[in-house]
Amino acid sequence: SNQAAWRKANLACKIAIDNSEKDQLLQGRDILRQRKTTKESLAESASNITESLMSISRMMSQQVQQSEETVQTLANSSRTILEANEEFKSMSGTIQLGRKLITKYNRRELTDKLLIFLALALFLATVLYILKKRLFPFL
Questions:
Q1: Is 91 helix (H, G, I), strand (E, B) or coil?
Q2: 63: which of 16, 87, 104, 134 is 20 to 30 A away, CA to CA?
Q3: Which residues form the Sec20 C-terminal domain (predicted)?
């Protein structure tokens, strides 16, 4: 964009110089006076062009500096994103391991409850059998 602006400014200055030279040629002034005016206008336009070029150069240097800062920021952001991605990958593995362990413990809890229920049923059946034999030996 800076190069395009520089080209446009340069082209505009050249067109302005050409137009001023055409106007001066068409006015029919004295040749010496015309040359003097042309030289003065050329010097003025050259200084204008120089100022424009210096301004464009300053703008380009500012743009380059901003671009460098932007690249630096992007590099830092990319590094942070990569670190976060690695962290998420490791956390994903940990979460999957935790899910497997919770599922395993849930199955063990169910198995333990079933075994406790069966043991309690066996115990109660044994107690009832013993009571039946002691209290009601004739049945």
A1: helix
A2: 16
A3: 45-135
The residue among 17, 25, 69 whose CA lies nearest residue 46 is 17
Q: How far, in Å, CA of 38 to CA of 54, rounded? A: 23
Is residue 40 within 8 Å of 1, Cβ to Cβ?
no
Instruction: Report DSSP state, residue 61.
Output: H
- 3, HSE (Cβ side, Cα atoms, 13 Å): 1
pLDDT digits (tens, 9 = 90+) for 36-94: 556 777 788 888 889 999 999 999 999 999 999 999 999 999 999 999 999 998 899 88
DSSP 28: T
Q: Which residue matches tokens 């075994």? A: 115
What is the DSSP track for 29-47?
--HHHHHHHHHHHHHHHHH
